[in-house]
Amino acid sequence: MQADMNKAGRLLLRAIEFADAHENRPLLLVVQRGLSLVLPLILVGSLGLMFQNAPFGLGELLESTLGPSWSTLWDTLVSGTFGIAALALLCAFTGSMAMLHNQQRIGPFVSPSLAIVVVMSCAFVLIAPREPAEWENIFYINRSFLLSLAVSIAGSTLFLRLSRLRALQLPMTTVGHDPVVRDVLTVMPAGIAAIFIFGVARILLNFIGIPDVDEAVRALLLAPFAQASDTLGFGLAYTGITQLLWLVGMHGPHMLSGVEEHILVPAAQANIAAWHDGAAPVFIFTKPFFDAFTRMGGSGSTLCLIIAIFLGSRDTGSRKLCRFALLPALCNVNEPLLFGIPLVFNPVYCIPFLCAPLLQTVTAYLATVLELVPRTAGEAFWTTPALVSGYAATHSLAGVAMQVVNLAVGVSMYLPFVRLADTMQERRGKRVLSALQQAAACCHIGPGGRKCLDLPGEAGRLAKALANDLAATLDRHDQLFLVYQPQLHGTLHRITGVEALIRWRHPVYGFIAPPVIIALAEDAGFIDKLGLQVLADACALRAAWVDRVPDDLRISVNVSPRQLLHPHFPENVLAVLTDAGLASHLLELEITESSVLEPNPHILEALKTLQGQGVRVAIDDFGMGHASLRYLRAFPVDTIKIDRSLTLDYGASVNEHIVRSIVELGQAMGISTVVEGVEQHTQLERFLALGCSIFQGYLFSRPLPGEECLHYIRTQPSRD
Length: 720
Ligand code: C2E
Ligand code: CA
Ligand code: CA
Known about the structure:
The protein has 720 residues and is α/β, with parallel strands linked by helices. It has 31 helices and nine strands. The chain has helices spanning 2-23, 26-37, 39-52, 58-66, 69-103, 112-127, 135-139, 145-162, 179-207, 213-222, 232-247, 252-255, 257-276, 287-293, 302-312, 316-330, 335-340, 350-369, 388-394, 397-441, 457-473, 514-524, 527-544, 561-564, 569-580, 601-612, 628-634, 644-648, 653-669, 681-689, 706-715; strands spanning 480-489, 495-506, 510-512, 554-559, 587-592, 616-622, 639-642, 672-675, 694-695. A hairpin with a 5-residue loop joins β1 (480-489) and β2 (495-506). α6 packs across α8, α21 (457-473) crosses α22 and α25 (569-580) packs parallel to α26. The mean pLDDT is 86. The site of one calcium ion has 4 residues, from loops. The chain crosses the membrane at residues 34-52, 72-94, 106-128, 140-163, 184-205, 292-312, 404-421.
């Protein structure tokens, strides 16, 4: 049993590694990024499609009451979104390809806009109808998806490669000095050549008798179904090919519409006629059979995926998308999942997306053969919600029971992959998190004044997702909470204070480093709210400890320089103290000066106001920044906290001199010094010899949850 578990674990790990390796392929990234760019279109289009095909005659009813503008509204919405989505995808893919090309610095810079213009032209040259026709058919989302993608990849690759040929580059001197014009003109001949090559391809296709690529592919796909039959093999082949087509972004049932027209619809009609005549329906596989039993929530039975995500996913992004996708899914419209998760070209979800409907085909077939479920002899429009459609298709509650069984089958197929997707995301996230941590720790600030949100690539995207999660978590104490680290008098073993430190346990990525939390809150503009919440929680805890800890035990709270710039910061702090019922001399604010180059007059003003009211001020990470001494000159701080980097390498003679000077300076100015990051006895002894008295570090205690910290304080053997 144990061995089996290990084997399963290893297999899962291999699967993750395989999927991970393929997830990071640049082409796959381009496709998935392109898809995410058209997601707004897909979401609006899905709603439009749902209302356009509202079940139970609801659409007709609303149209008769509200007039024709009701359906015009949805028709226009579908045309304006799904109708041009393939074109939008083409542009998005091409733009991403050009950006990738520029990032990899191969060949001259290619303007993504120019690449889009060139590739769009290639596409029109290749697929524009010779007769004026409905353009919508050409760019409809899942009809021309694969063609758009193929043209985009072929066209961009061709154009980008041609642009590297020296022979096709215009010499810089002839194109003036406007940088935009120069970039475009340099690669212009390559663009013209690419369009021309697509023109030749079109002529060749016409020449070999393929004027319409879409039609040609459909004819090819119908070949295996030339012989109509009602066997399990037929059912599996139809389901399997439909799903495979969806996986590459093509509308499966549309591409196999010949099967529907010539086999499935006539079979359904024959069954309905037999049922009306009181005879036994003959056919197992009909259109309602597939709609009711293998397409609950849309192709791939994606209602099962939504349920599996709600049951098993810790990823807030997927859960949010599923909340959006649930309503259309009830009417079997699943484009938000196909293009939003996305399921299309997804190396993880392709397995259950293919296998769940296959398994459901088998279970429903067997149940029908064993006469547990009647053959489908009812009419159920494809948008009829699951469970209702089971009854409508079979005229029997057994049909509903079959759907419940198939829902369970589908959910159990999707669930392990939902967990796998979470694990992969977690792994990828952890890699990117270390980049975020570095960005948050360093002083570099982007052009928008932000440390993390403007980072390029994966790091920036993760930062945005985390900032959203953090904003949604502000009021949740199970994820965002404080821990407290005691500060001790080294010889007396008396606890003089505790420092409140923030913790965020993210449901997918685990604990996020506090500097990242603070940087995200600063970047996204809610540091004031978060900071006040930290302050309020810390003060409330200290107030609740009254009579249980020494009267003079202080609570230290870290304050980001951004918070100090808020015009009402001093009043807000005083209001928090009043609300908590805490005396101001028990609060110490720790300000990190390393991120502020110059003592800012607003900040000094705010600190002086607070100090005037009795609140203590400490300078954190003293010795790291450039303004340490200037701060000391600007106003009388109460405490200096010696940075851990100076105490960690204590032994290096330069550090020893610096620490000695800081301690002497503190003693001369009557400022207390706290030594941070004390982990070893030897460290402690040397600092004691230097005259330091207050210490904080793992040697005494790690930061602890409130109750445990109180217990620690109360059980310390005091020697005074
Ligand atoms: P900090 O204010 O210098 O806090 C001390 C950090 O050193 C804490 O890390 C603490 O857990 C860690 N530490 C304490 N003793 C030892 C030790 O002996 N060895 C080692 N290796 N580390 C020790 P933490 O909690 O990860 O916080 C990191 C930084 O994040 C803090 O540095 C502070 O600048 C910031 N931060 C934490 N909570 C808040 C908050 O609520 N507001 C603001 N603005 N910043 C916060
Ligand atoms: Ca601190
Ligand atoms: Ca510090």
